[in-house]
Amino acid sequence: MPADRTVSTDWTVSTDRTVSTEWTVVIPVKGTADAKSRLGASADLAMAIALDSVEAALGAARVVVVTTPDAAPLFSALGASVVDDRGGGLNAAIAAGVAAAGEGAVAVLLGDVPALSGRELAATLELAARHPLAMVADADDVGTVLITALHASSHAPAFGPGSRVAHAAAGYVELSVPAASGLRRDVDTLEHLLALDPDALGARTRALLAAGQS
Q1: Is residue 90, in this structure, part of any structural domain at all?
Q2: Is residue 8 one of the residues assigned to a domain?
């Protein structure tokens, strides 16, 4: 890790909270038959992962999902707000969600973290509230699973290959979240998914894996 990068290391929820921040979390979900093609999984499993990720996030904040009209009712039923994904790729979808979220504290979370818990996300957002811009790297320390901004217009999303370095260069402070946290365990391949503790997975993902529907 570069020596000049500022890292926040306290990953606990304060019982004497001095910063009160209302967050909106934007989650892009492809919502098409070829979603998570690298995962090599069924469309049902890919959607289960996304639904479990969104449901966990709703335990910590207001959520805006950017997805297709066909998938929108599934997320609306959970209580998320939904924005139409008009194409243009991941960062374009994120930009649409951030615009819809309004000018407040906005986080962007990838929708492939089936072992995420609302408590983990709430703890991380509390840490993020100490910084104008913050980020959480994936478990491989290469990509990014979460970026946050106290003011939505400050966001400079750069998701894609090597996004951890790109986001750090854009001014996002890296938060030190335990590698075993469900937040850092994004799922890009079936091997990633099967390596997770089944008991930590969201109910939909766990049920499909138990039924052998990968």
Answers
A1: yes
A2: no
Domain count, the chain: 1
The string of pLDDT tens digits covering residues 93-139 is 999 999 999 999 999 999 999 999 999 999 999 999 999 999 999 99
Q: Identify which has the larger pLDDT, 7 or 50.
A: 50
Q: Which domain holds residue 197?
A: 21-207
> In sequence order, what are the beta bridge partners of 148?
107, 134
Does the residue 189 lie in any domain? yes
Whether the predicted pLDDT of 41 surpasses 70:
no
Compute the C-alpha angle 140/143/146, nearest 5°: 110
| CATH code of the domain containing 147 | 3.90.550.10
pTM listed for this prediction: 0.87
**3-state DSSP assignment of residue 16:** coil
For residues 51-64, average pLDDT:
97
141: left (phi over 0), alpha (psi -120 to 50) or beta: left
